[in-house]
Amino acid sequence: MDTKTREHAQQLEAVFFSTLDSLRGVWDANNASSVLLSLVFFKRILALQKEHVFDFIETEPEDYLWSSNFRNKVIDDPELAMRDLIITLTQFSKRNTSLKNIFAPLGLALQEENNLQLLIQVILVLEDLDFSTKAISISEFGSFFNDSLYRTALRASNTGIKRTTPKTINQLLVELANPQTNESVYDPTAGQGSSLIAFLNKEPNLHVFAQEQNIHIWALCKMNLWANGAYQAQISNGNTLVDDLQEDLKVDIAIAHFPFGQYTPTEKIKEQSYTSIPFDVSTPHIPCNSLFIQLMLSKLNTKGRLITIMPINTLVDDKEDRKLREFLIRRDLLEAVITLPYGLLHSTGIPICILVINKNKTTLRKEQILFINGANLDVKTQSKLNRELTPKHVECIRAVFHHLDTDCTPELEACVSTIPLHQVILNDYNLDAKRYASPFIAQLRLLEAHGQLIRLKEIFRSERPALWFDETPYQDIPYIRPQNLGKSITNYLIDPKNIPNTDEVQQVAGQLINESILLVNRSGRKLRTSYFVFQGTPILVNEDIMTFRVDEDRLLIEYLILQLHDDLFIQQLNMYKMDYQHNMITEEYFEGLQINLPPLEEQATIIKETKVRLLQEEEEKVEQLRNDLNLGKQRAQNEQYKIISSLQHELGNRLPAVLTEIKNLKYFLKDKEEDQTPINFSEPMFPVFEDEDIDTVDTLATTIERIESILIHSINSLDSTGDIIKADRSKLNLERTKIKDFLEEIQQFYTQETSFRIQIEVEEDAKGREIPIYTLIDKTQLTTVFTNLIDNAKRHGFVQNNKQYTIQFRVGLSSDQQEVIILYKNDGKEFPNNFSFEDFIGYGNYAGQTGHSGIGGYLIHQIIDNHNGNIHYRKRTDRRDPFKVQFEIALPALSTK
């Protein structure tokens, strides 16, 4: 790439995004990008035809005059100018059947937008740019077009991010497929074509086939491929599953990132020739995930390979997903399963996997599956909701897949395994990679090889207590429920004296226990275990608790409790819960889990060492708590001093100033009364000296406005200080709240606003449904947080009168499901360069000349901190990102149950 073409490409990019920013808030985001990209594409095609880059495009002299004709007509007759422009583009696409309907999105966009002045500006800007290959090469222009599509899709929020795949994921698909010269590649849900472009960047000489249902996105995909020189690419417009427009196609590679969790009417699928897996014709709808795989399989030639992105629950779910797994495994089509971390896709935070299917597996890989567990890769973190694979990760996964080379990164050590098909079949066709390739599985195998592992079934006696009561028994006895069980070895013994009796509980049902027994909760997020030592008084155990007789001749009870809370055991338990998609476990499966069982003497030693370690840890916690209390007390005193000092400073400066202004006003009005002259608001308060600029002299109006402003600032400071006092943690009124509902309530406060709009987006699950996300909040206090953020944007950021700004809330869960993440963004003016996040949350700091009370950020930070949450300011890393102000708020999550 020479310097000249690089400069032209940078100029084109700068013009494109600056123009897009000028349209933002005035035009719909999708319409703006459609118009801009379509006109850029049209100018490029005309320039290429003029240079004879291709000879199959038919043009007319009028085509080259489109911009000047529009400019000349628009002043006298805007509607005629618009109509003629659309006619020119329509006739051009009709004349060239390979580009038929490609300008349909532009035509629709122009009909919806009525601000012709901006369109004139766009056309004038584009008119001055050189679109020839001398100015910008095919690779440069293609890169610009593809990147612009990607960036504008991200700008368009949920409507855009669902149609594009992250760049590093595309690169990973390419490296896994390893396309060769003259091979063919097919994508049944092409979106904007970014995946296909990634393949062409790797190997330009590919035959490209694809289909896309949405005509708007189809047109952009077609433009994207042409912009990158793929003029012979065959891209059809239609629903692939019910209207396959390339039915007889056979290709070398099939790829897809299809929409997850969709359903299709059974009636439309029954006669489709690509279906290979039987389904129930009586059901009204069929899940599409399996259908897409079957369609892609039908497109592969005898040596074809298929690489697709899937939601990770596909690896363990029942029904259609299990049928698909069985179909692939029984036919030895599945070559590899690669699991990836949480939060890599733009539209959902769910963890994903990649399936590699190969009709021509090598001899070494026949009758086995390669598992690569990349779920714990240390990915690049943009936020707790958005993460990204690094190029190094892509290269490492490529090396493992093609060469079984795990030296690239220690993160994949013990996370790669080749498993025979019969072992997967014995595991009920479970394809979860961590079941076969993870550090704890490697540890289990090592212990098993040394004969140290034992299944719980072997140390539990075969008979379990079987006396059940469905109502209150004949006597009042302690009634044990899951919440009564211990969480660790420090409180594992059941003390019946501290347990409510059956006569104190409304609903009573369970097992009558009159012997020493192990108790384990059947459901719930975390394991709870206790041991009941029978001393003559029986207990009744709730049906949500499992009971096991323990062989105390083989192990010590305290050692058993330690093992049940050991990481190795907990990971086995969590793997079961992940496999079966629920938090409940049966006695049969619990007994199948394994623990390490050394001799009794060694068990006693481990117990003693553990108790010593726990005691030391408790002593350290006590010492740390003492230090924290002292520090907290000191911090609270410092905060009080800071508030008092700030108020003294603020009111001490402002109130004397107000008093001086009022005195001047009093003398001015007294003079007017004595002179009996009328009061004029524009009259100077003081005599104007010779050569003094009249505009710099205070008038009656400016004096009154200044007094009002000082008083408002003082009142705001006092009010905000009151809010800080109210925000004390001990005074919070916490309620279980669905975050989307709460944000929609706040949204209602601003329904009459014309200068901005509020968008609320919620993370989706594997089926494309919004995840219900709950947390405990004081609604009044959190309302103060978000209204402060919104009002801050109104006051400081939304400075253009003719523009509608956007405030966006994006809600999701952290990767461990323990935090609610709320991303707040707005596309107004950013903070001053010298105003940091520390300044924002500091007490009494003002954001430039428009600063309000100087306490808003401090108050926001304190309220969120009181909710055991945190807030971070995210600096904009991409200058093309329109959201210049971004905050990330994290709050503790609650279960949806």
Question: Can you put this structure into words, describing what you see?
Answer:
- The protein has 897 residues and is α/β, with parallel strands linked by helices.
- The protein contains 27 helices and 29 strands.
- The strands form eight sheets. Strands 3-2-1-4-7-9-8-10-13 form a nine-stranded mixed sheet. Strands 24-26-27-29-28 form a five-stranded mixed sheet, with helices on one face.
- β26 (805-813) and β27 (819-826) form a beta hairpin.
- It starts with a helix and ends in a 5-residue tail after the last strand.
Distance from N terminus to C terminus (CA atoms, Å) equals 57 Å
The backbone outline, from C-alpha atoms, is flat
Compute the gyration radius: what is it? 34 Å
Structural class: alpha/beta
Instruction: Count helical runs.
Output: 27
Report the sheet-strand fraction: 15-25%
Average predicted local confidence, pLDDT: 83
Sequence of strands across the biggest β-sheet: 3-2-1-4-7-9-8-10-13
Number of strands: 29
How helical, in percent, are the residues?
A: 40-55%
Largest sheet: 9 strands, mixed
Q: What is the assembly state of the chains in this entry?
A: single chain
Poorly predicted parts: 848-853
Offer a concise description of the structure.
The chain is of the alpha/beta class. It is 43% helix and 16% strand.
List keywords for this structure.
27 helices; flat; alpha/beta; 29 strands
Q: What order do the helices and strands come in, and which of them pair?
A:
Blueprint: H1 3-23, H2 29-50, H3 66-74, H4 78-95, H5 104-112, H6 116-127, H7 138-155, H8 158-161, H9 167-177, E1 184-187, H10 194-202, E2 207-212, H11 215-227, E3 234-237, E4 251-256, E5 263-265, H12 266-269, E6 285-287, H13 288-299, E7 300-311, H14 320-330, E8 334-339, E9 352-358, E10 368-373, E11 380-381, E12 387-388, H15 391-403, E13 416-420, H16 421-426, H17 433-436, H18 439-449, E14 453-455, E15 468-469, E16 479-480, E17 510-513, E18 517-521, E19 529-532, E20 539-542, E21 545-548, H19 557-564, H20 567-580, H21 587-591, E22 594-596, H22 600-675, H23 700-726, E23 735-738, H24 739-749, E24 756-762, E25 774-777, H25 779-797, E26 805-813, E27 819-826, H26 837-841, H27 856-866, E28 870-873, E29 885-892
Parallel strand pairs: 1-2, 1-4, 2-3, 4-7, 8-10, 16-20, 24-26
Antiparallel strand pairs: 5-6, 7-9, 8-9, 10-13, 11-12, 14-22, 15-17, 17-20, 18-19, 18-21, 23-25, 26-27, 27-29, 28-29
Helix pairs in contact: 1-2, 1-6, 1-7, 2-5, 2-7, 2-11, 3-4, 3-6, 7-11, 9-10, 9-15, 22-23, 25-27
